[in-house]
Amino acid sequence: MTAGSRERVTVCLPDEEATHAWGRRLGERLAPDHTVALSGELGAGKTTLVRGLAEGLGTHARVKSPTYTYLLSYPTERGTLVHLDAYRLRGADDYEELLLEEQLHSPWFLCVEWPERVGTGSLPHPLLHLRLAAMPGTSGRQLTVEEGRLPPPA
Ligand SMILES: Nc1ncnc2c1ncn2[C@@H]1O[C@H](COP(=O)(O)OP(=O)(O)O)[C@@H](O)[C@H]1O
Ligand SMILES: [Mg+2]
């Protein structure tokens, strides 16, 4: 992982395995009661990263895309992983009908795809906001830290 000073942290993920592995390392080090917001177009690799993160938290549960269910929870060795796809939500009110911070039982780890539908300010903090995008000229992806800090390396 690249350490940024004042510059934005950017990571190159050449293939699906790299996205998965990066998510797994994040899951291994993420502090409990944390939100990870994942921005990026359809097919950017958001769910792939959550699958890796789930593995890093210590579950082999098959993480499904929660596009039609909005919200899926998985027990892991380190706490409950809550995976929200906000694609079809229309603002913070929709979100609050679905999930209030009080409903999260510590230790929890919340991953939110399409956080801009809700606004990252409405999501529980501390929050790490990541963005996945196509890496120009390659078939890979580029990950950028938009807000918050990556956990320190192990
Ligand atoms: N770093 C990467 N390079 C190339 N393809 C990737 C990368 N990460 C994920 N993918 C692929 O992108 C596709 C969409 O991934 P997915 O995680 O479902 O995206 P999203 O949840 O953002 O819609 C999958 O086929 C996955 O294998
Ligand atoms: Mg997805």
How would you sum up this structure in a few lines?
By secondary structure, the protein is of the alpha/beta class.
Characterization of the model:
The protein is built from three helices and seven strands, in the order βαβαββαβββ. Strand 4 (79-85), helix 3 (92-98) and strand 5 form a beta-alpha-beta unit. The radius of gyration is 14 Å and the shape is globular. Helix content is 21%, strand content 29%. The protein has a seven-stranded mixed β-sheet with strand order 1-7-6-2-5-4-3. It is an alpha/beta fold. The chain has one domain: Rossmann fold (3-Layer(aba) Sandwich). The protein has helices at 16-29, 46-57, 92-98, and strands at residues 10-13, 34-39, 71-76, 79-85, 108-113, 127-134, 141-147.
Provide key terms for this protein.
7-stranded mixed sheet, alpha/beta, 21% helix, Rossmann fold, 154 residues, single chain, binds adenosine-5'-diphosphate, binds magnesium ion
Number of helices: 3
What is the share of helical residues? Answer: 10-25%
Strands of the widest sheet, in order across it, are: 1-7-6-2-5-4-3
Beta-strand proportion: 25-35%
* Number of self-contained structural domains: 1
User: What does the overall shape look like?
Assistant: globular
H/E topology pattern: EHEHEEHEEE
Oligomeric nature of the chains: single chain
What is the CATH top level name?
Alpha Beta
Overall radius of gyration: 14 Å
Bound molecules: adenosine-5'-diphosphate, magnesium ion
Given as residue ranges, the uncertain stretches (5+ residues, pLDDT < 50) are none
Let me know the average pLDDT. Answer: 92
The CATH superfamily is identified as: P-loop containing nucleotide triphosphate hydrolases
What is the strand tally? Answer: 7
- Here the CATH topology equals Rossmann fold
Query: What can be said about the biggest beta sheet?
Result: 7 strands, mixed
Assign the CATH architecture.
3-Layer(aba) Sandwich
Structural class: alpha/beta
